[in-house]
Amino acid sequence: MKLLRLENGRLVEVANLTRLAASDCNDMVVHPDTGRAYIGSYGFDVEAGEEPAPAPLACVEPDGDAWVVAEGLHFPNGSAITPDGTTLIVTESSGKRLSAYSIQPDGSLAHPRVWADLTPNIPAGICLDASGAVWVADPVNQGVMRVLEGAGAVDWIGSPRPVYACELGGEEGRTLYLCTAESSNAAKTVESRTGRIEAIEVDVPRAGLTD
């Protein structure tokens, strides 16, 4: 449970998050202006079949100082920061929703709120588009959905395989890249090596920063 940085071809430890996270750390996003990293964690041992438990969201300063900025999230997963740098949107996979926080000047988070209820979907990785919508991967239901604040999913693209993460890119920012695999189990994936990056063209280009 560490944050590492790649420097000159080698990994350097930035922060040890063991004291802040009771389980494996998950996705993160870095604020473009401050360099602060916001990092989620599972909250429970997924592979051991433990019951879901609340988990914190950690903030790591550029100098490695780490602290908890939000507690009680249900499997904080994919995350994104809006282009103006003022709002953090984070997936709560077990909570089946996207939650949002106002980012304060000191890096703390305020005004927690439900950005979109996605029940019965299981959201994972996310990315923002230029209209303010969020693309959300759903590995359980095998697809990716486009979500509007307060309205939920307004578009759905199915996949023959689980989709764990998504990102907008390409020359015009309209290529939606999907990270897919037959399983997320570490032991199985090492043997099967079924992971892929797949691509779909969409209408609205990317915006903001994502996990």
What does this structure look like?
With 211 residues, the chain is mainly beta. The protein has a single domain, classed as TolB, C-terminal domain (Neuraminidase). It contains 1 helix and 19 strands. The strands form 5 sheets. A 5-stranded antiparallel beta sheet has the order 10-9-8-7-19, with no helix packed on it. β5 and β6 form a beta hairpin. The chain starts with a strand and ends with a strand.
Work out the strand percent.
Answer: over 45%
Cα Rg: 16 Å
Spatial ordering of strands, largest sheet: 10-9-8-7-19
Low-confidence stretches: none
**SSE string, helices as H and strands as E:** EEEEEEEEEEEEEEEEHEEE
User: How many runs of DSSP E, i.e. beta strands?
Assistant: 19
User: What would you call the structural class?
Assistant: mainly beta
Helix content: under 10%
CATH architecture: 6 Propeller
Average pLDDT level? 89
Shape: globular
Number of helices: 1
Distance between the termini: 17 Å
- State the CATH class: Mainly Beta
Which fold name corresponds to the CATH topology? Neuraminidase
CATH superfamily: TolB, C-terminal domain
Overall domain count: 1
Sheet with the most strands? 5 strands, antiparallel
